Amino acid sequence: MKAVFAFFMGLLLTAHSLVAQKADRTKPPVSEAPRGLIVPKVEQFTLKNGVKVYYLQKTGVPHVSITVRSNGGTANDPEAKIGLATATAMLMNDGAGNRNALELSDEIDYLGIILQSYASTDEMSVGLFTPVSRLDASLDLMRDVVLKPRFEATEWQRRQRESLVALAQAHDEARVIASTAFNQLIYGKSHPFARRASESTLKNISIADIQGFYRQTITAANSSFLVVGDVSKETIKAKLEARFGLWKGGTVKKVTISDPSKTTGRTLYLVDKPGAVQTELRFGSAGVRRNTPDYFAITIMNTILGGSFSSRLNQNIRETHGYAYGANSGFSFPRSVGHFIASSAVQTDVTDKAVNEFMKELTNIRNISDDEVTRARNYEALGYPENFGTVNALAANVSEKITHNLPDNYFNTYVPNILALTKAQIERAAEQYVDPANMVVVMVGDLSKIRVGVEALNLGPIKVLTKEEVLGAIPVLK
Amino acid sequence: MKPFFTLLFLMFVAISGIRAQEKALSIPHTVYTLDNGLTVILHEDRTVPMVTVNVWYHVGSSYEKPKRTGFAHLFEHIMFEGSGNVKEGDFDNLLEAVGGNNNGSTTQDRTDYYETLPANALDLALFLESDRMGYLLEAMSPGKVDGQRDVVKNERRQNTENRPYGIATQTILENFYPKGHPYNWPVIGYMDDLTAASYEDVVEFFKKYYAPNNAVLVIAGDIEPTKTIEKVKHWFNEIPRGEVVTRPTAPAFELIGEKKLTVEDNVQLPRLYLAYQTPALYTPGDAEMDVAADVLAKGKNSRLYKRLVYELQIAQNVSAYQNGNALGGMFMVMATARPGIKLTQLQSIIDEEIGKLTITPPTEREVQRVVNQNESRILRQMESSMNKADMLQSYYRFAGNPDWLNEDFSRYKALQPSDISASARQYLNPKKRVVLSIVPKGKADLAVQ
Question: Are residues B221 and B334 in the same domain?
């Protein structure tokens, strides 16, 4: 025995000297202790005119992000002039101060900066992203865009035509039809999150309307700055004072967005897209406010349901069945009550089967395993520092914090808040916020191929909508 | 815990000399080669306690066999399905359990895999990457191939058949490159070829292309380089070297004449594509054509945008880009017509504007505008470990030197306006190109005739 043993030992030793020693792969390596991250406090100061500045320094790469944010957005559009806030944002990009549209664009491009105005549902913003070396010239341009937009009628005529054509182009896109129909069914057709500009509302908007919206909205009293990047507080303060110090007036603008009513019952809405090789699927319901104490539990529940690659929806629809390239879910958190949505684009001939699998997962999410809880908590908590690696990522996170008035220690308590969640809390979030019996289901695909199968599922009443009922008539364009 | 934002990696190293105010761009790094041929590049960036592990295999769709188009990308999918010591599903399960994300991508010339994860879990990423590099076949089965085949077919449906204008890329490639040229088909592949892909193909492809000597591993982020290379050796040293990989070669070809094609699609508006043959990535002429593309179609003052969209208002949008790859380049101009406008009309204006650029150099300001925008874009990329890892990979593979960032940018800074017009004259020949019209169903009369 001993001899045999010795013989083998010899072989092993020889092998070792010839081949590199192999790593132990019997189980995955254990990680070292997490290194953690402390995010510094977002500072606040005010300019002499009272305009608030939120500030966070980030060194490393010499560039800066500066955003002017004003309350009010597309939610404030009058019913007959839907598109007004967006038109205002577009026109702010189209000439300011002593530069017309082409001159302004040329200067922005020459400086190699990004300077762009946007309209969201409840906020207007002008965003600047610039290398530190060009900060002065960039801020001069930003001042002009914010304080002295030209609002030229010919520019609005251009933008109006462009917008009308874009409305027509939306009819090509099954995913746009699906998402628009979904929002209309959750919020109601005239709600700010669902309504769309049309040929008539765009044609109703005049330059005077745009100027009026601008004068009411982009005011000192109604705006604040967010600065993130490689610039000191003293420096940026002086530069902003020099350019925006005389900006005065206005009042804080109110944005009222009604909450969607609770989704009741389950109806399937089908939109025909003849010849489509995939069906766009949307499932969902009215959601909850961002400041709910359940926010963290909802986040982790969603990670398990459809918020990560290993989530149940993606594993089922993509990995187990190969019905689609992917499937996911999420909660939207505007300032008002948002929605829950699960979606995918599935192969036409398996649409009924895929819908059935979605319904199973939306039901089964009320029972989760300890393993899933641990993985999802770690996924969200341990990877959290990635949200703070770049100026843009930081600015987005700080912006969210300001919008939702999150506590000062929010970033630094996020990880413990997530890690403290229990399985019971997460299951309760599923029960409360994912209710497959009360859901809107939208399918955009080739009805001649999917309708019979979907009807046979007996999931609820079926209503067929036309593309035009969802998107409106295709604008008549000369 | 580590203080926040303490890192000051010396990215901008002052160069002494006549242009002392200019800074050289660089991504400081260390290069190692393991005994098995694996190239390892390490870059330290301590901004956040995260790390990116990025592996490029020097294989892409241009290496595919006839009747197996799309295989390199299908193979990429299979790489996530488990390996000898990682059971199916665990690649993602394990990474998510430490807070990591991962993905991959395939182009004509390379296949890329990455994990971004907390730096304390670096070993896990190295375990997973080395396990699939060394032991993928131990866990392979025909069932896994079938599963990802269905997923990939749906990826194709989503991006090609079910997307407006989605068929354009494939149509252009087929007509631009001659049969037998390795860029003649789309990376996603054809449905029939995806159907035909077999388990045996997976085995053959893995043995041929997925050896350490055909791969480069970049680790960028919160790392200590000397410790990190020891970790890399621990996980990768045992993987045997493979045979030397033969790179595909492109038959010499020249686009002759104007190939006009028309495809009808479910769209409201007709769209025109013009494709010209241009130099390969990082070779002379590549930067010139890159700048020419932006002079023509980037920003409101670019020549085509200004004419077609801003002044004449006969196009909804216009774009142009130089797409340099290892074996050659393609310059593409794309414009969508406004309702009632025929593509012939767009084409004649485009030809007129390109004609002007071939005769008269652009202004200094036009060129500088493009150069300055490139500089800012590089700055933005320099903030992300993931982007830096990708830049190191690209420079190593296509320029032969991971430290090529400064040379890359210097190509642009050195350009004279006359270089742009000379290259435009050489490459943007209206008699040598593919002209594709995508028109609404039943509206062939809107196409270029």
Answer: no
* Minimal CA separation from B277 to chain A, in Å: 28
DSSP for A100-148 reads EHHHHHHHHHHHT-EEEEEE-SSEEEEEEEEEGGGHHHHHHHHHHHHH-
Tell me the nearest-neighbour CA distance from A447 into chain B, angstroms.
15
Collect all residues of chain A within an 8 Å Cβ-Cβ radius of residue B162: 174, 276-278, 345
Q: State both tokens at A115.
A: 């300077």
A322/B contact by beta carbon, under 8 A: yes
Residue B52 lies in a domain: yes
**Cβ-defined contact of B49 to A381 (cutoff 8 Å):** no
Residues of chain A contacting residue B316, judged by C-beta atoms under 8 Å apart: 162, 165-166, 169
Note the pLDDT tens digit of each residue in B50-105.
999 999 999 999 999 999 999 999 999 999 999 999 999 999 999 999 999 999 99
B98, A378: Cβ pair inside 8 Å?
yes
Query: Do residue B95 and residue B30 come from a single domain?
Result: yes
Question: What CATH number is attached to the domain comprising B328?
Answer: 3.30.830.10
Q: Is A318 on the interface with B (CB under 8 A)?
A: yes
Identity of the residue in A310, A374, A385 whose CB atom sits nearest the CB atom of B118: A385
Are B54 and B90 part of one and the same domain? yes
Residue of B nearest to A41 (CA): B4
Single out the residue of B256, B312, B264 nearest to residue B444, CA to CA.
B264
CB contact under 8 A, B161 and A391: no
Contact state of B118 with A382 under an 8 Å Cβ cutoff: yes
> In terms of domains, do B220 and B75 share one?
yes
Using a CB-CB distance cutoff of 8 angstroms, which residues of chain B are in contact with residue A310? 89, 92-93, 96
Q: Which domains does chain A have, with CATH numbers?
A: 43-244 (3.30.830.10), 266-471 (3.30.830.10)
Residue after which a domain boundary falls, among B185, B207, B236: B236
Helix A410-419 vs helix A370-382: crossing angle, to nearest 10: 160
Is the same domain home to B261 and B231? no
State which of B236, B266, B294 marks the end of a domain.
B236
Q: Which residues of A touch B365 (CB under 8 A)?
A: 106, 110
CA distance B222 to chain A (A): 10
- Which residues constitute the domain of residue B261? 257-361+416-446
User: Domains in chain B: how many in total?
Assistant: 2
Residue A353, chain B, CB below 8 Å: the answer is: no
Task: Give the pLDDT confidence of A198-236 residue by residue, as tens digits.
Answer: 999 999 999 999 999 999 999 999 999 999 999 999 999
Taking CB atoms and an 8 Å limit, are B121 and A382 in contact across chains? yes
Residues facing residue A340 across a β-bridge: A285, A331
Q: Is A60 left (phi over 0), alpha (psi -120 to 50) or beta?
A: left
> Which tokens hold the place of A190?
């005239």
Q: Give yes or no: residues B344 and B206 share one domain.
A: no
Say how far apart CA A64 and CA A394 lie, in whole Å.
Answer: 11
Asked whether the ipTM of the predicted complex exceeds the cut of 0.90, the reply is yes
Closest CB to B383 among A61, A172, A477: A61
Centre a 10 Å sphere on the Cβ of residue A82 and count the other Cβ atoms it contains. 22
Residues B303 and B211 placed together within one structural domain of the fold:
no
The continuous run of DSSP H or E covering B317 comes out as strand B315-325
Chain A residue with CA closest to B231: the answer is A23
- pTM for the model stands at 0.94
Q: Which of A36, A57, A110 sits opposite B1 (nearest CB)?
A: A36
- Residue B293 forms part of a structural domain: yes
| Nearest beta carbon to residue A310 from set B96, B117, B384 | B96
Both B263 and B311 in a single domain?
yes
Confidence of residue A478 (pLDDT cuts 50, 70, 90): low
What gap in Å lies between CA A215 and CA B377, rounded to an integer? 34
Q: How far is CA A203 from CA A84, A315, B340, in A?
A: 10, 47, 20
